[in-house]
Here is the input.
Amino acid sequence: MIFASIQRKSISFVAKIDRNMSLLRFNMLERALEQRAVEVTPPSNNPSDYFGEKVFGRKQMRKYLNKQTFEALIATIENNTPLTQDVADAVAAGMRQWALTHGADHYCHWFQPLTGGTAEKHDSFAEPDGQGGLLEEFSGKVLIQQEPDASSFPSGGIRNTFEARGYSAWDPTSPAFIVDTTLCIPTLFIAYNGEALDYKTPLLRSIQAVNRAATDVCRYFDKSVERVFSYLGWEQEYFLIDDALWSARPDLVQTGRTLMGHEAAKNQQLDDHYFGAIPSRVLSFMKDLEYESLKLGIPLKTRHNEVAPNQFELAPVYEEANLANDHNQLLITIMNQVAKRHHFRVLLHEKPFKGINGSGKHNNWSLGTDAGVNLLRPGKTAFENLQFITFLVNVIAAVYKHNGLLKASVMSATNEHRLGAGEAPPAIISTFLGSQISSVLDKIENSKSDEDIRFDSKNVFRMSGLTQIPTLLRDNTDRNRTSPFAFTGNRFEFRAVGASDNCAEAIIVINTAVAEQLVEFKKIVDAKIEKGEKKERAIYETIREIIKECKPIRFDGNGYSDEWKAEAAKRGLDCEVSAPLNFDRFTDPKTVQMFSRMGVYNKVELEARAEIKREMYVKKIQIEARVLGDLAMNHIVPIASKYEGVLLDKAWKLHQLGMSSATDRELIENIQNRTAKIQTLVAEMIECRKKANRIEDIREKSIAYHDTVAVFFNTIREEIDRLEEVVDDQIWTLPKYREILFIK
Ligand code: ADP
Ligand code: MG
Here is the structure.
């Protein structure tokens, strides 16, 4: 009788706390479960009916510009011919006229500052007419250049040393587009003295550098080549989670990743998500996103489930690198907008959840001539294959010489969770070529050129081995998924890029390193030719030397194995896993020399980039440390203590009744130890943060944040996740992995 009444009392007491404490979690869970697919029906089943309709592309230019203006603009786009003020005015007028037909009332210079993401400042077309009224106007002057008040964007000190101003300047090679009712003009963002404050400026410079160097080398093979393009095809991985559940996770809201959370019993073990049927809510989102993207000229082609629950991927058809990168940046903006319509949030963090795959962005990269020849595709004749091998080998050499820099270009506080953390890809850059190409290179390396190179009676170049490549490649399916830089038949696939990265960071390094290598290659070949060597033999001999020289970068084995780590260190490859130390590569003498020789970055710009990377690193870790500390102290410890109180109450009563409370005591001790440990660790972490904050030098500070602050994250989390296992589910406030990760 007494026992029953005590029990009833304590239950009603607990139930009251439950309702208050975990109200948000249960409400949000209810909301998430109630969501249904939001159907979106494009006006036509034929994407070609609306593809590019919101872009001021060639078709629109032809319609809205007169012939003279159109031709002048095309000359600027294709040959960099300067635009006169008159032409700029005429282009602006045509652009505005076109934009008005789409209901645009504002315009903006759209640029990519070093914060990541894109920036836009909208201005109305309406200008005062001087007589108290308004006049719709858009002149060539404002199309070409603007001075946004952008003093809050990171400049790495560039703007402190010179004028504080930053300018945005029109990039006519990437067409203007309309989002909502705003005409967006892709622009560069530069300082007063021309130094780059964005990603686009150095990307365009690197595209120029590799164009020049590759065109020169192409002319050994085809005198008519005028231009070489770099191409990029990105594959964007992302997570989708329900909006309501996202809003109940302060860590996701503030840092983009979960700083705590016990793994769901069923994750990706069964591989049942990968390429599985796409949930209907998600499919509607994807269709909507595709519709919006296609209208903006983003040629999306592929969509599928990824390995982890709630993880997906999309990919367009590859495009010229500058345009492809603009499209990736634009897609990210659109994705977030469309997701909200479907009550989702997009997570682009590289590791939002523990225990399941993170998200990357494979960058498929290649070079092609103005005649449409892909320089990384094997040809049909020995001569064509000599060209293919020339480019292949020079790319490998470029990656070898700058492997540390290439890794640094995609390293960040967020991507650090993927690189080197036992997840695709490893933190050591190597190239995978597959067995056929490897054996061709081995053959060249070990051949004596006199035996392998012949000229037949008509003086046609012959080379044993090289004529065979195309047939062999057709069944080159043995793709090595652990390789960060893999040759995949007609392109290289750089897989270390993070899901949230701006692709330009990687492409700038690849283009510039390849440009430098091709210049070097040409110098050597020309010297041989000057000494009387036949051109083909000079090329072949030089290739042979390069193959020998860059052998350490070639690795076809398992990139995750410990043996590879040891072997790579022996080979002298960059094995550093700490992000702040990786950033040192930006200012290595050989980096500075490469970028300045190729006209992509000067030393000041490189120092600025390294500084910004370090600042961003510190800020991100600082935010994570604060959020983790707060959640630990004001969610986890109070809830666990409450539950501990209930158990103490129970144990005391059991004791009063003369019953055993041994298992409850064990649980109480477990909770007590863990909450005590969390409190101690959080206090220590705060101390370390304070100490790190006192360091002036940004390099030292970022190292301190890496070595002394971030190291607490996993240990604190471990205690929290263990508590999640035992504390009453009814009072746990944060949505759990098993709830967040399985959209129906
Ligand atoms: P995966 O098997 O790696 O998923 P996909 O066939 O889906 O590869 O292609 C991935 C990306 O590679 C796509 O964006 C595609 O357009 C791009 N791609 C294909 N060929 C090239 C090329 N020559 N240069 C650059 N990107 C390319
Ligand atoms: Mg791929």
About this structure: Residues 235, 362, 493 surround magnesium ion (ligand 2) (CB under 6 Å). DSSP finds 27 helices and 19 strands in the chain.
